[in-house]
Amino acid sequence: MPSPRVMHQAVCERDKSFEGVFWLGVTSTRIFCRPGCPARTPKPENLRFFPSVAESLAHGFRPCRRCRPLERCGETPDWLRPLLAEVEKDPARRWRDAELQAAGFHPVRVRRWFQSQHGMTFHGYLRARRLGAALGKIGEGEPLLNAGFDAGYESVSGFREAFEKMFRLSPGRARNQTALVVRPLTTPLGMMVAAATDTELCFLEFHDRRAFEAQVKTLARRAGATYSPGDNAILQQTELELEEYFAGTRLDFDVPMAMPGSDWERSVWEQLLAIPYGETCAYSDIAKTLKRPKASRAVGTANGRNRLTILVPCHRVIRADGSLSGYGGGLWRKQKLLDHEREVRGAS
């Protein structure tokens, strides 16, 4: 993005030439806008800038109704406007493909538009709205229970109800099950969700990844775990080490990690941990190392089931021809992580 000074000037001048370059969030209203929004110019201390709609949503901001930031440069087709209006009426609603079809919207057409315009599917957008609203204020540093998940969930009981809906799991600590404490973490690449026991980190993932909910359920099944909102020393250590990683002062992570999975998955994840910082490895190379040279696709599958993003560096695995593929958090994040590590390594 441009410098904060340039972006602030663009906002003050309502410069439409910056449309699509950045989006601005207003912390006093929790709304995000286009640079050319006709609304009154916010105070500088209330401004935050984001490189995409997805990032704006991830930090808990909702679309402005005046400049309609989802509608890039006003090009939203007429057929889609009624659906966007319905979403704004009830952002928490979970739209199934059958419901889209019944309302007169072709699911594939809707998915392709969101993918082309915002780099995320329609369901990914809904998930970003839902989780962004739930985690945004907490990510800004407000106390977990005081912040609540949304305007309608300000009490402890409301928080727990929202938590259960988000994870589709009970937040209670059941007998004979592992208790995982969950909290959001803010990073330069968007909101992440971390879960840990008192001794190990078990889950770290971008909140808007395609398989987020599936990963949460799989971990609960394999680890015999239940989730509850909160904080502990492991999550605090994870947050600190991620900050150091993005600052370029940490190359390896020390936080204890748990990786429940099949023998094959764990063997692949161990190979991921062996890839040096700032370097890459092909899926086929890992397959050969594991003495299964024809198992490149199986390596990719295990790679995608990694539940400790960044710490277990699945972003360092690429195709044999050097191109990028297969990153649940989005290829743009994979490229950013690789660029960051190469820049830090080159400067050392």
Q: How much strand content do the residues show?
A: 5-15%
What is the structural class? alpha/beta
Roughly what is the average pLDDT, rounded to an integer?
79
Number of domain units: 3
How many helical elements? 14
Taking pLDDT < 50 over at least 5 consecutive residues as the criterion, the unreliable ranges are: 135-140, 142-156, 166-176
Biggest sheet strand line-up: 3-1-2-4
How many strands appear in the DSSP assignment? 10
Percent helix range: 40-55%
| Cα-based radius of gyration, to the nearest Å | 21 Å
Shape descriptor: globular
Features:
348 residues, alpha/beta, DNA Methylphosphotriester Repair Domain, Arc Repressor Mutant, subunit A, 3 domains, 4-stranded mixed beta sheet, 14 helices, 42% helix, globular
